[in-house]
Amino acid sequence: MKTRVEHALEHLKESGVRITPQRHAILAFLMDAMTHPTADEIYRALEPKFPSMSVATVYNNLKMFIEAGLVRELTYGDSSSRFDADISDHYHAICEKCGKIADFSMPALDEVEQTAASRTGFHIRGHRMEVYGVCQDCFKVEQPC
């Protein structure tokens, strides 16, 4: 059975994209990451293995992955964009202290796009939702025992 990375690489090859070692590493890092890393975090994680790779290489590959539908760019306020290789319908909880992002699903919102379309006449292309709070690690620091 193929892994998510293998499926994604196959999709890129079918689109005529050459699979370089750096491209493979960036995609694998994103798909294995349980966090939602910034381009700089990806660069720092992979730089020891690819010392000639630049931050621009990471950004260019992320842009290509987004255009190929393999990755989503998450922008929240003025902070750096974060990247998510989980393209399924899901939402994000964001820690106001440390910036950690956690995924969650909410089946009750599955019909929000149809409702919005029927009530507004818009052709809805997607939606996103995020909730803000304090993660458990930061809360423990705030609330000493």
From TrEMBL:
Keywords: Cytoplasm, DNA-binding, Iron, Manganese, Metal-binding, Repressor, Transcription, Transcription regulation, Zinc. Its main location: cytoplasm. Binds 1 Mn(2+) or Fe(2+) ion per subunit. The gene is perR. The lineage of its organism: Bacteria, Bacillati, Bacillota, Bacilli, Bacillales. It is found in: Cytoplasm. This is Peroxide-responsive transcriptional repressor PerR. One of its GO terms (biological process) is regulation of secondary metabolite biosynthetic process. Zn(2+) binds at residues 95, 98, 135, 138.
